[in-house]
Amino acid sequence: MSHNSFGHLFRVTTWGESHGPAIGCVVDGTPPGLRFSEAELQRWLDERRPGQSRYTTQRQEPDQVRVLSGTMPGEAEGELIATGTPIALEIQNVDQRSKDYSEIARRYRPGHADIAYDTKYGIRDYRGGGRSSARETATRVAAGGIARLVVPGMTVRGALVQIGDIAIDRARFDWDETRRNPFFCPDAGTVDRWAELLDAVRKRGSSIGAVVEIVAEGVPAGLGAPLYGKLDADIAAGLMSINAVKGVEIGDGFESARLSGEENADEIRIGVDGQPQYLSNHAGGVLGGIATGQPIVARFAVKPTSSILTPRRSIDADGHEVEVMTKGRHDPCVGIRAVPIGEAMVACAIADHFLRHRGQTGR
Q: Taking burial as the number of CB atoms within 10 A of a residue's CB, which of 3, 121, 124, 256 is the most buried?
């Protein structure tokens, strides 16, 4: 199976399966001399880690990351210095329960990649989905921890802005609030409503979808290139590669269809520093595929988790019509843990374009 890598100059190749002994990735293209520590990478993995609330899967994985190559010790305790060679990262799997999937070894779960994998490769890993499992995304989060350090002054933050049909009140948007509740919700007034909704969803063994918003600030103007190297196209591709993502938008996205030309145009003036000052950001920080210097804004829609307790009609590998009820431990809303994954993918895409821009322009 090919296509396990993304990026060009900042390139990430992931490996491992949901129920294998470990998962990991190789990060190639990290600038030599970059300083970081395993603890800095662990910070982001801890935000994605399962089993931290009743609203996520109860699989107990510590997601402890180990740096295996591509660094040498720094002066400070725990500090690592990138040598410029490939950085290999490993995360052990410690809480697999493969027996939970024995009944579906030959049955295709509706909404999952089971039938698609079997059709393409003639084989599939029924134990949690193998490579199609969201377990793989932990490695992306680890790689994203490195990517965040590649672009000086860049900050990438994410928030859950909608679960089901309940959206946040943007008038109460507060980034600090996202770290005070289990949903990465930026609106304190919506937290209890989401908790009530997800408790009901979880009790009936069902699932529900969500919308995640990622904002990257401190992104230098000029990153990206027309026509086939657009920054927003690569961000969209990275977000779309996340499991269960079915839609991506940049800036106002689909809401742009409701606007007039006058409303949609981001007017420009000269700021006090003599630099262009945009009066709005409908474009989400990208024009013509090139960063404007404004915040990069991207949103993605996550479908409901396909693993549910309600029997669904399907077929098996022998051509029989069957009903499938998925056992095991699953997220009632995968959008929650998708927030740090989305942050990582945006960080990786921007880091890649930062290095490509520097290589092309020398600045």
A: 124
Residue 304, helix vs strand vs coil: coil
How far CA 79 is from CA of 40, 82, 83, 90, in Å, comes to 10, 10, 13, 18
Which DSSP symbol is given to 262? Answer: H
**CA–CA distance, 171 with 245 (Å, rounded to integer):** 26
Please name the residues in contact with 345: beta carbons below 8 A apart, sequence gap of 6 or more: 140, 144, 235, 238, 239, 241, 242
pLDDT: is 351 or 326 the higher one? 351
Share of the chain above pLDDT 90, in %: 82
pTM over 0.70: yes
H/E element holding 210?
strand 210-217
d(CA 107, CA 318): 9
Residue 250 exposed, middle or buried by CB count within 10 Å (0-12, 13-18, 19+): buried
Residues in the chain: 363
Q: Across the strands, what pairs with 156?
A: 216
pLDDT in tens, 225-277: 999 999 999 999 999 999 999 999 999 999 999 999 999 999 999 999 999 99
pLDDT tier, 156 (very low <50, low <70, confident <90, very high otherwise): very high
Residue 5, strand partner residues: 13
